[in-house]
Design brief:
Elements lengths: L1 H4 L6 H19 L4 H16 L1 H10 L15 H49 L1
Helix pairs in contact: 2-5, 3-5, 4-5
Length: about 130
Protein backbone atom coordinates (compact mmCIF):
# COMPACT_ATOMS: atom_id res chain seq x y z
CA UNK A 1 0.00 0.00 0.00
CA UNK A 2 2.95 2.31 0.61
CA UNK A 3 3.84 1.99 -3.07
CA UNK A 4 0.59 3.64 -4.16
CA UNK A 5 0.85 6.35 -1.50
CA UNK A 6 4.36 7.28 -2.68
CA UNK A 7 3.08 8.14 -6.15
CA UNK A 8 1.85 11.66 -6.92
CA UNK A 9 -1.28 10.76 -8.89
CA UNK A 10 -1.88 14.37 -9.91
CA UNK A 11 1.11 14.48 -12.25
CA UNK A 12 -0.16 15.06 -15.81
CA UNK A 13 1.89 12.27 -17.38
CA UNK A 14 0.51 9.75 -14.87
CA UNK A 15 -3.03 10.86 -15.64
CA UNK A 16 -2.18 10.47 -19.32
CA UNK A 17 -0.81 6.97 -18.71
CA UNK A 18 -3.95 5.92 -16.86
CA UNK A 19 -6.08 7.51 -19.58
CA UNK A 20 -4.10 5.62 -22.21
CA UNK A 21 -4.83 2.31 -20.47
CA UNK A 22 -8.53 3.14 -20.13
CA UNK A 23 -8.80 4.10 -23.81
CA UNK A 24 -6.91 0.96 -24.85
CA UNK A 25 -9.25 -1.18 -22.74
CA UNK A 26 -12.30 0.50 -24.27
CA UNK A 27 -10.90 -0.02 -27.78
CA UNK A 28 -10.32 -3.69 -26.97
CA UNK A 29 -13.88 -4.08 -25.70
CA UNK A 30 -15.54 -2.10 -28.51
CA UNK A 31 -13.60 -3.92 -31.24
CA UNK A 32 -14.26 -7.41 -29.81
CA UNK A 33 -15.99 -8.57 -33.03
CA UNK A 34 -13.10 -7.51 -35.29
CA UNK A 35 -10.67 -10.41 -34.99
CA UNK A 36 -7.90 -9.02 -37.20
CA UNK A 37 -7.84 -5.72 -35.33
CA UNK A 38 -7.90 -7.60 -32.02
CA UNK A 39 -4.83 -9.60 -33.09
CA UNK A 40 -3.06 -6.37 -34.03
CA UNK A 41 -3.99 -4.89 -30.64
CA UNK A 42 -2.86 -8.07 -28.90
CA UNK A 43 0.56 -7.94 -30.57
CA UNK A 44 0.80 -4.21 -29.87
CA UNK A 45 0.16 -4.70 -26.15
CA UNK A 46 2.65 -7.55 -25.95
CA UNK A 47 5.23 -5.42 -27.77
CA UNK A 48 4.62 -2.72 -25.13
CA UNK A 49 5.35 -5.26 -22.40
CA UNK A 50 8.44 -6.47 -24.24
CA UNK A 51 9.79 -2.92 -24.57
CA UNK A 52 9.08 -2.03 -20.93
CA UNK A 53 12.68 -2.60 -19.81
CA UNK A 54 14.15 -0.35 -22.48
CA UNK A 55 11.43 2.22 -21.82
CA UNK A 56 12.23 2.10 -18.08
CA UNK A 57 15.91 2.75 -18.78
CA UNK A 58 15.13 5.63 -21.13
CA UNK A 59 12.61 7.23 -18.79
CA UNK A 60 14.95 6.71 -15.83
CA UNK A 61 17.57 8.84 -17.57
CA UNK A 62 15.12 11.56 -18.62
CA UNK A 63 12.63 11.71 -15.73
CA UNK A 64 13.47 15.33 -14.82
CA UNK A 65 11.93 16.62 -18.04
CA UNK A 66 8.42 15.34 -17.27
CA UNK A 67 8.16 14.20 -13.62
CA UNK A 68 8.57 15.59 -10.14
CA UNK A 69 10.36 12.48 -8.85
CA UNK A 70 12.18 9.46 -10.26
CA UNK A 71 9.80 6.51 -10.35
CA UNK A 72 12.01 4.46 -12.65
CA UNK A 73 14.19 2.27 -10.44
CA UNK A 74 16.60 -0.29 -11.96
CA UNK A 75 14.39 -3.22 -10.91
CA UNK A 76 11.48 -1.74 -12.87
CA UNK A 77 8.77 -2.14 -10.23
CA UNK A 78 6.94 1.02 -11.24
CA UNK A 79 6.97 0.07 -14.92
CA UNK A 80 5.82 -3.43 -14.12
CA UNK A 81 2.87 -2.27 -12.04
CA UNK A 82 1.70 0.77 -14.00
CA UNK A 83 2.78 -0.09 -17.55
CA UNK A 84 3.17 -3.83 -18.06
CA UNK A 85 0.46 -4.91 -15.61
CA UNK A 86 -2.44 -3.15 -17.35
CA UNK A 87 -1.11 -4.14 -20.77
CA UNK A 88 -1.01 -7.78 -19.71
CA UNK A 89 -4.56 -7.57 -18.35
CA UNK A 90 -5.75 -6.10 -21.66
CA UNK A 91 -3.85 -8.83 -23.52
CA UNK A 92 -5.56 -11.49 -21.43
CA UNK A 93 -8.97 -9.96 -22.16
CA UNK A 94 -8.20 -10.01 -25.88
CA UNK A 95 -6.95 -13.60 -25.65
CA UNK A 96 -10.06 -14.79 -23.80
CA UNK A 97 -12.28 -12.99 -26.31
CA UNK A 98 -10.39 -14.64 -29.17
CA UNK A 99 -10.82 -18.07 -27.60
CA UNK A 100 -14.57 -17.48 -27.26
CA UNK A 101 -14.70 -16.36 -30.90
CA UNK A 102 -12.86 -19.50 -31.97
CA UNK A 103 -15.25 -21.70 -30.00
CA UNK A 104 -18.20 -19.99 -31.66
CA UNK A 105 -16.58 -20.45 -35.07
CA UNK A 106 -15.98 -24.16 -34.42
CA UNK A 107 -19.63 -24.62 -33.41
CA UNK A 108 -20.81 -22.85 -36.59
CA UNK A 109 -18.48 -24.96 -38.70
CA UNK A 110 -19.65 -28.20 -37.10
CA UNK A 111 -23.33 -27.26 -37.57
CA UNK A 112 -22.68 -26.50 -41.24
CA UNK A 113 -20.89 -29.83 -41.62
CA UNK A 114 -23.81 -31.70 -40.03
CA UNK A 115 -26.30 -29.89 -42.28
CA UNK A 116 -24.18 -30.76 -45.31
CA UNK A 117 -24.04 -34.44 -44.29
CA UNK A 118 -27.80 -34.54 -43.71
CA UNK A 119 -28.41 -32.91 -47.12
CA UNK A 120 -26.03 -35.33 -48.80
CA UNK A 121 -27.72 -38.32 -47.12
CA UNK A 122 -31.17 -37.00 -48.17
CA UNK A 123 -30.01 -36.51 -51.78
CA UNK A 124 -28.49 -39.98 -51.80
CA UNK A 125 -31.80 -41.54 -50.71
CA UNK A 126 -33.74 -39.73 -53.46
Amino acid sequence: MGFFHAIDWKEPWLMGLLGFHVVLLLVAIISRKKTNFQMFLFLLTLAGVYLAEALNRFLGKNWKSFSGQNYFDPSGLFMSVLWSGPLLVISMIILINTLFSLCYLIVRWKRAELRHRARAARNKQD
